[in-house]
Write a structure and sequence with these properties.
The protein has 274 residues and is of the alpha/beta class. It has a single domain (3-272), classed as Aldolase class I (TIM Barrel), CATH 3.20.20. Helix content is 40%, strand content 14%. The protein has 11 helices and 8 strands. It has helices at 3-14, 40-51, 63-66, 71-84, 100-113, 131-134, 169-178, 196-205, 223-230, 244-247, 255-272; strands spanning 18-22, 57-60, 91-96, 118-121, 140-146, 187-191, 211-213, 238-242. Helix 8 runs parallel beside helix 9. The chain starts with a helix and ends with a helix.
Length: 274
């Protein structure tokens, strides 16, 4: 089963567009584990167990593991997701962007070492920085397109003087991802929930590509506007991510049940926007 098929299956099985981001910060763990880097797996595994039937995907952010020398815990976590929620794909959020043999090594890291189903990538260095990942024919890749951070305007929203039909850089990226770059048919785009008008523009250039949309929850994105802009047709796959608002819904011993409650509320809110 390829990544696109996995998304379809998890969406149908769990009736969900929600992706829970796994960004473990030991200083925010419940008191019994607070500050203990050795408990990263335990914390994330409890979040996974509490929300596995409510999500379309899980998205571990690699820096939150590697900064604590917890790569082995990340490997173990992804294997745990495989065991408790085999129908839920794992998107490794790493935003890699390099060329040639270095990109090949990053692809090995993501897909062979960690066993992720998809990876986030920066397209800034062009197609040859994307191509090594696409050699994994059943694996997905999400290209940064129109991100939710304020600094995204610095480059993504700049106008391109010599390309008429895609006047902004983010539109050009969407067009490339929908066309010549999508050699394995598994590409998607990262677009921020804080820019629903631009999500709509991205959809006009990439009507069926999966969109990974951060910005709901702690970043304040509007769920209804986001889903309306992203869900232009029945084949449009929409994965809306929420991290801190869910995994830190409580910093007490009830953190897992609180995460489930928040995930359920978010999933139902997104479904109500269809």
């Amino acid at each position: 089963m390829n990544f696109i098929d996995q998304l379809t299956l998890s969406n149908t099985h769990n009736k969900s567009m929600l992706c829970v981001g796994l960004d473990p910060e030991p200083k925010r763990f419940p008191l019994k584990w607070r500050g203990d880097e050795r408990k990263i797996f335990d914390f994330c595994a409890e979040i996974v167990d509490a929300t596995a039937d409510l999500v379309m995907a899980f998205k571990p952010q690699i820096a939150y593991f590697s900064s604590h020398r917890a790569e082995a815990q990340l490997e173990r976590l992804i294997q745990h997701i495989r065991e408790v929620a085999p129908h839920v794909p794992v998107v490794l959020d790493a935003k890699r962007g390099d060329i040639g043999s270095t990109a090949e090594q990053y692809a090995i890291e993501a897909f062979e070492r960690y066993g992720a189903d998809a990876l986030t990538l920066s397209p800034f260095m062009g197609f040859d920085s994307i191509a090594p990942y696409l050699k994994y024919h059943k694996k997905g890749a999400f290209l940064l397109c129109r991100t939710s951070n304020p600094g995204g305007d610095d480059l993504q929203n700049q106008r391109l003087a010599n390309i008429e039909h895609t006047p902004h850089l983010y539109e050009h990226i969407a067009s490339l991802a929908n066309g010549p770059w999508n050699t394995n048919g598994q590409l998607g785009l990262v677009v921020g929930a804080t820019y629903p008008t631009e999500i709509e523009r991205v959809r006009s250039f990439a009507p069926n590509l999966p969109l990974l949309i951060p910005g709901i929850g702690a970043q304040g994105g509007d769920a209804q506007a986001t889903v309306k802009a992203a869900r232009s047709n029945q084949n449009a796959r929409v994965i809306v991510t929420s991290s801190r608002a869910i995994i830190y819904a409580s910093e007490g011993d009830d953190f897992a049940s609180a995460a489930r409650k928040e995930a359920l509320k978010t999933r139902d809110l997104l479904q109500s926007c269809l």
